[in-house]
Amino acid sequence: MILRDAVNRLDIGAAPVGYPNDPFAFILYENAGYLIDDERRAALLHRLIALAPTAAALRDTPRAKLLAIAREGGMHPETRVDRWYETARITLDEARGDLLGTLRTLDPLKRRSLLGSYPTIGDPEADQIVLFCGIAPEPSGDSNVLRVLERLQLIPVIAYPQQYRLARELQRAAYGTDGAALRRAYNVLRAHGKNVCRRALPDREHCPIAASCAGTLTSMGLA
Prior knowledge:
mainly alpha; Endonuclease Iii, domain 2
């Protein structure tokens, strides 16, 4: 099964992830909570941005006000507040408060380097930011995306960094530089991984391609 065919068959019209289209907000979104769902994460980001819409405003916001929001995001609220302040500092120091504008001037390696200096932002998150903020059509994928591709036998079972690199190459070969198609593929594969092709107890009954997915059958002990 090729990637395009798999994405088309798995696309059941699920709502896309409501990622922010601004990289500063996206980084705050990534650091909004600990093991919480997308809806709760988005709600916390909305409160945070309403309180501190810019890096300068966030830097100057009293810690107690930020902590009140952070406590609603699960464990380790103090650490999250530290990460929010660090996000503001880096944006002001390295991007003069305009992260989006700065990223648009950088080549891919320098974009990744700058984004990688932020708390919790690795290569996959950096690529997501670049893709979903419309900076460049960079293929991406989280653990859900990679699990689906692995079970479809489109990428092998290998170490995560190598698996991620192959997943990017697979998407690039399928969609080229079509940013809209790359975003759609990411959303479809991620939704399928979260809701159906789960790591434990995949929901074969509601999988549109279960009969032809050897990886899912194997994970359930049926092959």
